[in-house]
Structures are given as structure tokens and as C-alpha cells.
Amino acid sequence: MDHYNNDAPHQMSRRQLAKLAAASALGLSLPIASASAQSAPSDTESTLERIRRTKKLRIAALVGEPPYFTRDPFTKEWSGASVEMAKDIAKILDVELEYVDSTYGNSVIQLQTGKVDLAMALTPTPQRALSIGFSHPTYLHPYGIVAQESVQASTWADLNKPEVRIAVDLGSTQEMAARRYAPQAQITAFATRDEVMLALQSKKVDCAVFAVLLGLTAVKKNPSIGKFSMLTDPIVGLTSNLAFAKETNTDWRDFLNVWVDYNRDLGQISGWILDSLKLAGIEPSDIPSDVVF
Questions:
Q1: Which of 53, 107, 187, 241 could join 60 in a cystine, given CB atoms 3.0 to 4.6 angstroms apart?
Q2: pLDDT at 67 over 50
Q3: d(CA 60, CA 83)
Q4: Nearest Cα to 82, choosing from 158, 138, 163, 16?
């Protein structure tokens, strides 16, 4: 015979609630669910919770984007500044790093659709901010030009002339900067960066606007396209940031912001950038003195 009365279930419920409240006050947790239930995802699971549950951090790996991402064609191993940043984040979280092939444009879509947890080396724009979230800036990325020695230009005003032919990669922040500060020039937007370099090499254009890291890497890869120099008056630069999916829970965003601030202020991010440039054969002496990351 059941010797609990009709109030027993309610009494047990109140006792459980009391225990839970006491445990919460002490910062403890009670074993109220099985191990299998605890390891299963929930409808409200945050990005950080999922990463720690699956023990896997998925990042959008930008194929052919040195010095951020480089993949060895033989070993398939990844290297670069963004790879080192991702490795450090994964180490702190004690999770495995998983690389998902991507591009700048695709990384935004992959974040929105839950294909990746983190995108690297993205410049925040108002349009992108409508779709995804951004961390605090990892570093400032100023702009310059790649041109032959015969092209004498050190300021945006030098470029802002009808006879000057400028190449940019379509939809990039380089294109935005060129159209903003040299609107009178002949600006041609090419679909890929390889096409920009080909236009330089064939002298179809006088110069190309590049963010500093991309410009230095392009010149080292193909010295025949010219040399890189900074543009001043004004020095224009946009930030490079980490990006993530928007969600109500802010744990992932808060962790990334602290991680960025800590490593940027310690100079660790600059160190990763300089080390990645060395992998491309670029020494600190090759970097213009007026460049500050």
C-alpha cells in the first residue's frame, strides 16, 4: 500500500526547491539530471555552452588569405596570425579546433546558419552588424598603395585625380576607402585580389589600394607589381575584429571581448601578426615605420 498521502508530491517539490535555493546560494549544483541528459543540447543552449559541451571550436578558415590563414598544400596544416589567435582561445577553453573552409563573405553566412562559432579578421561594417556580432578591435588596419617606383603618391589627394587609375577588390573595405577619399580617380573594382595583382603587373592600372598586411604580403609574393607605401593626410584605417552569431546570451561575446583586450594590451596580438609576416618572408624592417597595428 502506498503510505504517502496526496500532499506528498507537493511536499517533495518544495523540499527540492529549498535544496536548490540553498545550493545556489552556496555556488553548488545538485545532481538532479543524469549524465546523458546533461550532455545533450537544449533549446536555449548558448554558443559557449555548445563549444564546451562538444569540446570543439569551429572557426571560418579563409583559404588563401595570408598572413591570417595559410594552409600547407602537403601537410594540410594551418598557420597564420588568425590561426594562432584561434589556437589560444581553444587552449583556454580546453577544446579542439576545427577549421571550416570559408571566405570573408561566406564566413558571415556560416555564422548566421550555425556552421561556425567564430570568424576572424573581419572588419565591422554597419551592414554586417545587422547580421552578426563583433568583438572589441583586435588591431587597426591602415591603408596604403602598391605601385611602381614611377608613381609618386603618398597622400589620398595625390590619388584623387581623374588621370589616376586605381584597382581595388570588389566589395572590400579598400574599395570603400578609395571611393571615399579619391572619388575623382578612375577606380576599377576586380572580382578577386589575383585580378588586382594581374592588373598591376600588366600596368592596366597605376596602383592598387591595399590594407597594410595584405599589401605587404602581395608585394612579397610578387615583387614585380611594385612596392607598398602608406597613404597619409589622413591616415585611414579600419579595425579588424572577431565575429560571432548574435544571441541573447552574452557569455561568448563577453569572453571574446576580455580575451581581445587582454592580448591586445599585452602586445601579444601584434606579436602574432609580426610572426605570421615572417612566415611570408616579411621582416620587421620591411614594414613602413609609420605603420602601427
A1: 107
A2: yes
A3: 10
A4: 138
